[in-house]
Amino acid sequence: MSAMHDVSDDRRARFLALPDLELDILAVLSAAGEPLVQSKLVAMAVGAGLRTPDDRRQVNSGLIKPLLKRWDELGFTHCDVQHQYSHSCADDVAHWALDRASESRLLKHVVRGVQHIMPAQQHYYMSNPQHLYRDARLMLYLGEPEAASAALRDASERAARMHQTEVQPSLAALFGPNAPAEALARLPLAVAERYVADVLDLGLKWLVPLGDGAWGLCCWTAEHSEHLAHQAMVLALLRADAAACRELATGHGALEVEISGALAALIEGDISAAREQAASALIISRGPKKTRKPRIEGPAEPYLALLLLTGVNPEHRSLAQSMISTRRRRGPLTSTACQVLTVLDAFLQNPAEKKSLEGDWWVFGTSRQDWCKNLFWGLFGCYTGQRDAVGLQFGTRSEQVLSCARESGYSWLFEEFEELTRVFEGGDPPVGGLLRLYTARSEWEHALDALAAVAQQAAPKGAESAGSKQRVLWQLTYHSGESGEDDDRFEGEDEPVWMRHLERYGQRGPGIELEPKLQRRRGKGWTAGSRVTLSKLQKACSEGKLPSEDVRVCAHIVEGPYSSRSLELAESVGLALVAHPRVVWQEGGAPAEVVRAEPSLVVKERDTDIVLSMYPHPENEGERVVYARDGSRLRVYSLERVHQQLGRVLGAGISLPSSGREQLQQTLGELAGLVPLQSEVELRGGEAEGVAADPRPVLQLRRATQGLLIRSCVFPLGLHGPDLQPGRGAATVVARVEGQALRTERDLAGESERFAEVMARCPSYPQVEGEKGEVALVDILSCYELLAELAKLDENDVVIAWPEGQPLSVVAEREVRDLKLRLSSSGDWLSAVGSLAVDGELVLDLSALLARLAEGQGRFIELGEGKVLALSERLRRRIEALGALGRRKGDALELPPMALFSLEGWVGTHGNVKVDRKVKKQLTRVREAQALEPILPSTLQADLRDYQREGFTWLCRLAHWGGGACLADDMGLGKTLQALALLLYRAERDDALLPHAAGGALRRGRPRSDPCRPRRL
């Protein structure tokens, strides 16, 4: 390799040694880009205004002929004796000659001289593509990209029509034999994108083959244009290149990532993944607020629609139907595969009225540019069971496509047409490809699906939540009133209340008031909400303007007791509020969690008596729904018939003497399993099975407007049983869990201790307990810290539950050992490339880590979709220290050589740091330098102070390592003396270079004629 490099350098030196006139003539020959006879070269040189050095005469044949002979001997030019002794430049010489002409501002004169003999075409119809490429090249040299782009477009189209379909030779024709195809990357980006758009268009329209060089240039240009990326992705599909399809999405948005993923999965045969990513692409195309119709611009549109239409997911099919409908409204479909998809969609909706293709052969294209249309009509014939009617015409139309696809390297397209042809000829059933997307079904199967769809449509539904322009915010107001007796309640339980119509009854007792607020969409958000009457809500529901969750609540609007015109909310409205996403408390607007609960029996011991009651008990005869506020929760108790009967028997509660304990135990045993029971009295008999209590604390987390709401509780009978506060309530709990009556004895003190241990191991948990065991964390960083602390706990210690789903999750904490780092030498600098694996798929590089840490989230990095990566404090400090040493450059970090002193300890103690050979040598020198303890040279006739000795040691270590430094301090503190000591020290062991002026202070008698010339000691 070194010898080849020397030969190239020597050749370039011999080229640059040529006289200026010879260099200019070589530039003319290079700009022509094709072999020239001597007479043409002379005419072009004269047209360029080239003259002899004395400026007395123009270039002529007598001058050029010996030059050509000498250039041939030097290997700068080639002579083709079979074509009238025409001459052309060697590739490297042409590159050097054009670069020199450009630097000397002679290039435009050279191009004009070439155009004087070979003028550019004004009309490109029926022109030779080679001439068009030559004209484009000359226009680029003249700095006229618009004219060059027009010539390129016409040349590409002309080459395709003349069946000169190989794109790679067209690049060589564009740049001549003197420059590589990669020279396209040096064009103005706009010109390069236009040319690549033409090339991709030829591939998609005419099935033009792409060589490796042309495909690489297409991928390079697609990085700068989303439209070109979409075209290149479909070409990658035709080439069956899944890896390239995914790489084309690099640098683009989430939409391109999903499209490329869907097409790549289609290539790999993973139909399920392809459908999911196609659906994600259409959802993303609707915009952040999901207000637009799904729309994919580009040739990938029909493939995504076909994937979703042929699936069984109704949501996917709805997306595809909406996209096809949007496409149909934008213009005619005869030129696209969307026409076929429209007919296919109609067939899938009503197979009894399927379209017959007999006699409609106009639907098939007649040339190879209609391959996409023919492919989709062929698929339609197979899907609808019309193989006999379609097969003959399809076979005739597919012969040319199969030939072109095989010759052009489009293996995926070839396999699709080949399998369709085989199926139409009566071959084996399809085994893969697009035919696998849908299996023809009988009419009765479609009929059953249609009946199921009718049943779903008949169910009461509201508007789609994402697309509706109105919605209701339900506001709760809690009126506490005067607290009554609490004998029937354990510590921590709220007084039950009822839905009150305060304005009607004029009551001020405890109760819950529910008020609707109508919100309207404004731009990208929603209004705060305005008061609305119940009659207007009923009207909005009948017109389908409200989301389905609001329709369920409005179903509980009933007539008032005094007039049919007055409306009110029934007491059962709370059941429809369960799991509703928009319920808030009037005070502060905090979110309210509405949950359904079951009434229970409560047994308490009071001195000598035993009190038996029901919680909550009906206040009035026939009461059906009772409410109780539990912190930010609203519990809704549905009082069934058995609860009504128990309420009538127990009333506000009955007292039993201690003598009735045994009889009470027997009765409670018989009631066990019928209703939940909390008792301070031990039970006997009954059908309830005794089980061990689950003492684990359960933290129920819920995302609030700011931060988290945390509720602490226990589930003695498992997560499907009743929830109680840790260490509070009755010791005996009986309830029916999943159809089985269970009984357990709680360890109240043990529950409190275990909860205290959890709080001790989670310093971020608020130490001040809120109302009913509920606390709030407002600071988002504190939320991240708490989630990271909880992630370290075992399930045997604490259970983490998200009743409304998990909007936040912290990935397991990453340590220093998880960061993989590779150090390499890059010139005078060091290059550090690092990666940190988040999970099995996501890996963050060092540059991304530094950028995320700069966002100010402490040791946490937000990954999107509620996922957060936690770094240990040591790892965070290490990454930030590493970033402070250098500068980011792409995915790498550039570090100065001095950074080795900081990295030396890290490399030595962590096996995940890899270094190359040069860095290893530098580290060895660093360690040697750090261990060096130099001794002052005996030839130094001076005494050094302590700080001067330290400076001398520092300079010796740097000199041994080979780094540069500047010794600077106040004037008169001995900088010169320390430098002289270093030079004497180095002189005893190695040569030391210094200016003569400094050397004169050590050795007298040397001449001072050139004080700047270095001397050796």
Summarize the structure in short.
This protein has 1017 residues and is of the alpha+beta class. It has 37 helices and 35 strands.
Can you give a write-up of this model?
The chain has 1017 residues and is an alpha+beta fold. 44% of the residues lie in helices and 17% in strands. The protein contains 37 helices and 35 strands. The strands form nine sheets. Strands 16-13-12-17-21-22-18 form a seven-stranded mixed β-sheet. Strands 3, 4, 5, 6, 7 and 10 form a six-stranded mixed β-sheet that branches. Strand 1 and strand 2 (86-89) form a beta hairpin. The protein is flat, with a radius of gyration of 42 Å.
Output the keywords.
1017 residues, alpha+beta, 7-stranded mixed beta sheet, 6-stranded mixed beta sheet, 17% strand, disordered C terminus
The largest β sheet comes out as: 7 strands, mixed
Strands ordered across the widest β-sheet: 16-13-12-17-21-22-18
Separate helix tally:
37
Whole-number radius of gyration? 42 Å
The amount of helix comes to 40-55%
Q: Stretches where pLDDT falls below 50 for ≥5 residues? A: 122-126, 163-169, 176-181, 356-362, 453-461, 483-487, 501-508, 995-1017
Estimate the strand proportion. Answer: 15-25%
Rounded mean pLDDT is 75
**Which structural class is indicated by helix and strand composition?**
alpha+beta
Q: Per the principal axes of the C-alpha atoms, what is the gross shape?
A: flat
How many extended strands? 35
Give the termini separation: 38 Å
